[in-house]
Each structure stands twice: as C-alpha cells, then as structure tokens.
Design a protein that fits this description.
By secondary structure, the protein is an alpha+beta fold. It contains ten helices and six strands. The protein has a six-stranded antiparallel beta sheet with strand order 1-2-3-6-5-4.
C-alpha cells in the first residue's frame, strides 16, 4: 500500500483515523523505506539524529587513569557530558507528547466552560428538540431526551455535534443548581469497538467517568476535580446507557 506525504504527516500529527493509522503502523514493520520517509517527515527526528551524530553504535567509555590525578576529573567530566547528552536525547524522543484521545480532548474543551458560558443558554424546547434530533442522526442511536431531562441535580441546557477524527462526538450540556457546567459526551466508535468498564479519573481538572458499550463511548464530566458523580452515574446506568 502506498501512502502520500500528506497522509504520513497527518499520522505524525495524530490527526489520522484509526484504520489508516493501523495500516501505516503495520506497513512500517516490514518496510524500511516507509520508516525512513516517516523519519524524514517528522520535524523532531532531525534533532535526534544530530544529537546522535558521531556517537558510535557501541560506545567505548575509557576510564580515567589513576595518575596523574589531575587528569581524572576532566576525563570523567567528558564521559559524564556524553552520557548526559545521550540520556536527554533518549528521554526527549521517548517522552514526546502523544496525541490526545477523544476523552482527553472533550475534557479539555469542557474545562473552558464557566457558569457564564451557559448562563445565556435558554433555548426554547423546540430548538433543544432539534439539537437532540440532529445529534441522534449523527450518532445513529437515540439519546432519550426524557432521561436526559431527568438527570438528578442537573438541568438540560443544549446539545451540540462535534467531531473527533471523523467520528461524531456529541456534547450534551447541563447546569447544576448553582449554574455550574456539567456535560455528557457520546462518541460513535463503530462496530467492533471494545466495551470498557466504568473508569473515573480527573482530566483537565474535571472529575470524569467514562465507559464504552456496543460501539459507543460515553463520558460524564463535572466542573471541578472533586465532584461526586455517583448519583448521576447510577441514573444513567438504569435509564440511558449502562
């Protein structure tokens, strides 16, 4: 299979779909030329190559002599400096930031919301109906507005359709009794996507709970790291998507 430079750049930037990314990774294992093209297109690779230029494949470390005593510290300093450069270079390469998944992206987006952001979201019921209908169409599954409106402690405000790597991602916005923003996100991951059990963690400073079932991923987001989402999760498990 042949991949264009634009496709390979999209892969390096983490913006390529999962199927194409998997195809590239499978091809690289048996195609040194493709691996070299990726290295040539990666803006960080030349930096690493330059650092390693001149370092032998099997570094030979010469220990300092016992005499004269003054020679030891300087030679050890040279060895230490070379080792430090090597360590920093390897760390830089191995700890490059990985592209964020859909949950991390959604949490980062939600973290920008404040009470003021949703204070003016007073849409008439007909408009909210239209938003949810569009979201259901894009997701290919019902969202059950009655259940959403009954979410304990939260008021349904709006729904909007986003996208993550070409997959529809719906954000349903709520407000708690104090006007703080909450959200329920649903993404269509596709047939064959693995189910996953409930996982609670803090993402972008927000308490989150996510799970996956029957080709869809779900995530409930609070407005601060210490939100207790138990009541809402119990309700969703019974009425919306367990």
């Amino acid at each position: 299979m042949t991949f264009s430079d634009d496709t390979l750049k999209a892969y390096l930037q983490g913006s390529l779909g999962s199927e194409e990314s998997d195809a590239i990774e499978a091809a690289v294992e048996n195609d040194p030329e493709l691996e070299q093209r990726l290295m040539d297109l990666d803006p960080i690779a030349p930096v690493v190559r330059e650092v390693f230029r001149g370092i032998p494949a099997t570094p030979q470390v010469e220990l300092p002599p016992r005499s004269p005593a003054s020679a030891g510290p300087w030679r050890m300093l040279g060895v230490a400096a070379a080792a430090a450069v090597l360590a920093v270079s390897l760390t830089f390469w191995l700890t490059r930031p990985q592209p964020m998944g859909w949950a991390e992206q959604a949490a980062l987006y939600q973290s920008l919301y404040t009470p003021d952001s949703i204070a003016t979201l007073e849409y008439p019921p007909a408009l909210v109906d239209a938003q949810i209908s569009l979201a259901e169409e894009k997701l290919g599954r019902p969202l059950n507005r009655d259940s959403l409106e009954g979410l304990p402690g939260l008021e349904l405000k709006a729904a909007q359709v986003l996208s993550f790597k070409g997959k529809p991602l719906v954000q349903i916005v709520f407000a708690d009794a104090d006007g703080n923003p909450f959200a329920l996100c649903v993404i269509r991951q596709g047939d064959g996507a693995p189910n996953s059990a409930l996982k609670q963690e803090v993402l972008s400073g927000l308490a989150t709970a996510r799970w996956a079932r029957d080709g869809y991923g779900y995530m409930l987001l609070g407005n601060r790291p210490d939100n207790d989402l138990t009541v809402q999760l119990d309700y969703l498990a019974q009425t919306f998507a367990g």
